[in-house]
């Protein structure tokens, strides 16, 4: 695995200069890369076409081929995203909580880049440009490891990024692609603690579990969401139906989509038929507990396994409960720490839900689909953290930085 | 390992109520435990004596036996520490960055407990009370796993803490001791992701490496310190000598002690003899590079290995360099991300060192020994993080918390 270690070494080396680039240099670099993506569009489309042809030959599902496909419009969007990142405020260098201690030491906390960020992801090639942009903006070097399906696209995108940086005389090793798509190469990457400061896996539950299980590099876990909506006894049923439709069907395959409903038994007779009708119109299959099945024809019986399943598909589970306590208990047992919502008109229940649900984002009377860096006003997002350390919820630029204490002394020694 | 998993399950259960205790309840609990420690002092001394006798019989070194020993004075200090923790500001519940989005969603970030904190430590029994106190103050349940040497002391301290909590009708499972001191029990603990939210290893390099290597629970790495002092060309030599004496000898076995010196060649002839003389008076052996050896009799030749060694003993390494760049390079290559200092009168070099050294705490003209929660004004400390994720440097109460987004909606759906 000398090749993988060489990538690590080069990235660490690059991070030593990337960390000191000024805000202007970084922004000019991002804009230069955006220009380069537009200029080399033809090359990118040709290389992407190789991946798409291979995928078709291998019998990949149309939905997945669509994720893999680049079009001139999608390349335009990649370029625009980089230009938007250039316009965001740079968190690097901010000083926080400066204080003077009784002995005269001045202690400040300065925000600095993490160093080298490793990103392991699956077949969407736009992640390549995006991840580079966020890492570069925050003064980090990036090691990218995309899926084998997108290898030609990723190689081409990284080449173009490096061309853009080189034209601005910026260190092109700020981004390096692990071209070896072997599993052994990822395993090596997960052990390179001396070169990589943090690993961010982006993709399905299997990929994430593998990284969490095997990495000795610190990991930020992202993106599996078994999100619930609880329809409280006092809910505005019309609002509940609208929010459920939005949270389940506005986009099916995303981590902030709703996967499970919890309905208070006192409102079940009225609410479940209306919820079912709306979901049925949208071709969503509902799997419920016995009480739900007895209320509404067409609801299939859920198994225990359903409560823990992130479908990412036209299926939703439905559980009835006799109290808000039972609802909170059920949600805290089965959720993945992502996004949970209550629909209620009861003030105490709203606060209780906010307080007692253990998740990155807890909503009252709104769709779980809002858990997103852009929707939260961060301007960009590298993923959604479902862990509690370092950062939780949508990760903007600040999540790609750390702090260091800067101490100004005048000869102080400790008594 | 059913016993270990049962501890995990009970702790998770306890965390569900501990997280909601009010500030007053938690502070009363801490004070009650302090009273109980004083009242049951006799019992604690008897139990500790068993450990001390076993250690003596096993031929443990006097310095280590001293770390293990409890005295009435030390038990008093444990109680006072808990009373001090009770007086600190509670970070739990603070709302940060509340904002209203254009669609009317109000989004706030609330500071909340982590949940269950696991602490794996070695033979100092005072860590038992301290770790409980910091976790309880921040609304976390704690699972403690001390070393086998201190098992009788730790059992006794945990029993007394639980007695104190029970008297206040507070959940005594807020603290649980893993009494099985087998290696297999720790290994199981490191895999209990469903019960433990974060693991903090406190102890020697071997213990910490084992936890980082094998844990699937997120880890906060603490406390190995290969700390440097760089004596710049323009240094006030007298200040340098005083700070070096303090940083090396004020306390030998601690992570913020200085382990390695870097001296600019243009000041070496004047500075090294004075530094050597002072360290020699304190029985510190100096191991230097060829140039240092040629300047001062008594300096022994350092091996490559010396540059990376945390001695925790009366030994220090000394490297000469021809520029501040070479000094920074050497330090960034060999340090452990803990504390580094420059002694200088040169303004540009001071800022350059602050900027370019990659460590939790970077000092100009002060002793590395100040990297400590109390010295930084946090009032308490659970350890010193040498990693970049979540928290860096001395960890006070806030490091034992996380955030969650609290969203107030009025029916919003995502377009």
TrEMBL record, chains A, B:
Top EC category: oxidoreductase
Key words, A-Z: Amino-acid biosynthesis, Cytoplasm, NADP, Oxidoreductase, Proline biosynthesis
Gene Ontology MF, one: glutamate-5-semialdehyde dehydrogenase activity
Coiled-coil boundaries: none
Involved pathway(s): Amino-acid biosynthesis; L-proline biosynthesis; L-glutamate 5-semialdehyde from L-glutamate: step 2/2
A Pfam family annotated for this UniProt entry: Aldedh
PROSITE patterns, A to Z: PROA
Subcellular location: Cytoplasm
Family matches, as Gene3D superfamilies: Aldehyde Dehydrogenase, Chain A, domain 1 (3.40.605.10), Aldehyde Dehydrogenase, Chain A, domain 2 (3.40.309.10)
Major place of residence: cytoplasm
Function field: Catalyzes the NADPH-dependent reduction of L-glutamate 5-phosphate into L-glutamate 5-semialdehyde and phosphate. The product spontaneously undergoes cyclization to form 1-pyrroline-5-carboxylate.
Family affiliation: Belongs to the gamma-glutamyl phosphate reductase family.
Protein name, UniProt field: Gamma-glutamyl phosphate reductase
Protein source organism: Extibacter muris
């Amino acid at each position: 695995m000398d090749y993988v270690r060489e990538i690590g070494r080069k990235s660490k080396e690059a991070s030593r200069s990337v960390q000191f680039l000024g805000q202007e240099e970084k922004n000019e670099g991002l804009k230069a890369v955006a220009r380069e993506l537009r200029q080399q569009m033809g090359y990118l489309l040709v290389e992407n076409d190789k991946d798409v042809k291979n995928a078709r030959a291998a019998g990949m599902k149309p939905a997945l081929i669509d994720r893999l496909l680049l079009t001139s419009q999608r390349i335009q969007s990649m370029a625009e995203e980089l230009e938007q990142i250039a316009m965001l405020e740079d968190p690097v260098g901010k000083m926080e909580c400066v204080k003077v201690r009784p002995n005269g030491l001045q202690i400040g906390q300065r925000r600095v880049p993490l160093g080298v960020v490793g990103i392991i992801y699956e077949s969407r090639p736009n992640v390549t440009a995006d991840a580079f942009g966020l890492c570069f903006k925050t003064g980090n070097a990036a090691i990218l490891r995309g899926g084998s399906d997108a290898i030609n696209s990723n190689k081409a995108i990284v080449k173009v990024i490096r061309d853009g940086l080189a034209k601005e005389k910026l260190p092109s090793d700020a981004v390096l692609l692990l071209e070896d798509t072997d599993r052994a190469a990822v395993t090596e990457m997960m052990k390179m603690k001396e070169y990589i400061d943090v690993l961010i896996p982006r993709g399905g539950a299997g990929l994430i579990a593998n990284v969490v299980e095997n990495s000795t590099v610190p990991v930020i876990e992202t993106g599996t969401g078994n999100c619930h909506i609880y329809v409280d006894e006092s809910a505005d049923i019309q609002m509940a139906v609208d929010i459920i439709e939005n949270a389940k069907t506005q986009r099916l395959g995303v981590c902030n989509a709703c996967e499970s409903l919890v309905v208070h038994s006192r409102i079940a007779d009225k609410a479940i038929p209306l919820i079912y009708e709306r979901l049925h119109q949208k071709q969503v299959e509902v799997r419920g507990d016995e009480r739900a099945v007895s209320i509404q024809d067409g609801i299939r019986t859920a198994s225990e396994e359903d409560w823990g399943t992130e479908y990412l598909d036209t299926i939703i589970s439905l559980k009835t409960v006799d109290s808000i306590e039972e609802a909170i208990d059920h949600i805290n047992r089965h959720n993945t720490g992502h996004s949970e919502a209550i629909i209620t008109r009861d003030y105490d229940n709203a606060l209780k839900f906010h307080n007692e649900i253990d998740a990155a984002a807890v909503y009252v009377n709104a769709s779980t689909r809002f858990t997103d860096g852009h929707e939260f006003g961060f301007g960009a997002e590298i993923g959604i953290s479902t862990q509690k350390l370092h950062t939780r919820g949508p990760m903007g630029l600040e999540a790609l930085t750390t702090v260091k204490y800067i101490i100004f002394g005048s000869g102080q020694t400790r008594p």
